[in-house]
Hints:
Blueprint: H1 9-16, H2 19-30, E1 34-40, E2 45-51, E3 58-65, E4 71-76, H3 86-98, E5 107-111, E6 119-123, H4 137-141, H5 144-148, H6 152-160, H7 164-173, H8 181-187, E7 191-192, H9 196-205, H10 210-217, H11 225-246, E8 256-257, E9 263-265, E10 269-272, E11 275-280, H12 290-296, E12 302-304, E13 309-311, H13 316-328, E14 332-338, E15 343-349, H14 356-374
Parallel strand pairs: 7-9, 11-14
Antiparallel strand pairs: 1-2, 1-5, 2-3, 3-4, 5-6, 8-9, 10-11, 12-13, 14-15
Helix pairs in contact: 2-3, 9-14
InterPro entries: NF-kappa-B_Signaling_Reg, PDDEXK-like_dom_sf, Restrct_endonuc-II-like, YqaJ_viral_recombinase, Znf_SWIM
Domain SWIM-type: 59-96
Protein name: SWIM-type domain-containing protein
Amino acid sequence: MAGESIISMSAIFEYFKDSRVIRRGENSVKSRFIQNVVYDDDLHMIRGGLYASMKQKIYNVEIFLSSEGDIQKASCNCPKGLDVCHHMASLAIFAHKNLSVTDAACKWSKVKPSQEDTILTAEMCFASSSHPFFPLLKEISEEKEYGNHGDKISFLKEKLSLTKDRIVEVQKLTVGQTNNPAWYIARKHRLTASNFGQVLKACKRGRFPPTLFQTLTGNTNLGGIKQIQWGRSNESAAIEIFEKRHNVKITKSGIWLEECGFLGAGPDGIIDDDTLIEVKCPFKYKDSFFSDCLLEIKDYIVSFNGESFILNDAHNYYHQIQGQLHICGKKTCILALWTTKDYLEIEVVKNVDWQTNLNILQDFYLNKYIQYITE
C-alpha cells in the first residue's frame, strides 16, 4: 500500500476499545478470512465480505468513517453485529493495512488465497474496458467534451443510455446485491426504486431540501443502520417461508437498469417470468402482529379493506414496487412482510398509469440531481 492509510490503528482502538475483539480481528486477517472489500471515498464507507470461522458462511460488514478517518458507525449481519464484533475489527484492520487515502473511489480488493500478504486490487470503473456496460456519471461529467458541450443534458442522455443487451449484462454482473461489490458500484449516482417515493413526493411539492440529496447520495445520518441490518439479516427467513409454502425456488436478482441508464431497481428475487418478490422486515414492529400495527399507525405499509390486506398506495414502498415492475418488465410483485410473530403476503399488480412517473424521475435526475452531484 502506498500513501497514508484511510483509517489509523488509534481510530480502531478508540472505536472497539476491547483488545480481545481487536486481537480476534487481527487473527481473521492473518487467516485470510477477508473475502472482498469495497471502499467508496465519496461516502467514506468500507464494505466487505468476511468468512465465518468455518468458512461456510459470509458475513457482510459496513464501516462508516468521518472525514478525519474516525469510525462513526459499523454493522455486521452476524449474531453480534448490532453491537461490535471481531468481523468489524477485521475489516477495519484490513483497510488500515491495504487501503490508502490516494486509492480511487470504489475499489474492490480481494485476498489471494496463495499469498497471505499480497492484495489484488482492481478498479471497477463503469467506463473501464473490463466492464464496458457501466457508463459512470462522475467520469462522463469530468470529460472535456462534456464541459464544452452546449447541450449538456442531451450529451448525458446519450452517454448514459443502455441497450437491452447491456441491461441484461448489468443484471447478471450484479446478482447477489449486497454480497456483490459490483452491485454497490452499479447503484452509485443512480436513482433506484427504494428512493422513488421520496423523489416523487418532493417533485409533487416542488421542494427539494438538502436532506433529499443527502439521502440519494448516501450522505445521511446513521440512525437507520440497525433497521437496515435487521432487514438484511431476516430477508432469508421470509424467502424460505415463501418457497416452502408455494413449492418454488426464488431466483436471486441483480440490479435492473432502465434504458435511460440512470434509473434502476433491485428486487429481492424473481419468482417466474411475470412475478417478482420484495421482502420487508419492519424493525420498529419486529416483534408485533400486523393487525396490531394497523391499530397503532394509520399510514402503515398495509391497510385492511375488510376482506384482505392491501399495500398502502401512499407509502414509499408502493412506488418502490411499481418502479420495480416497470423497470424489470414484470406484471406482479409479491410483497412478503415478516416479523418474529407474523408473516404476510400481498400481491401487487402493475399499474400501467404509474408509467408517467418514470418521466418525472428522469426529469428530476437530469435537471436537479446531476446539478447537485457535479457541484
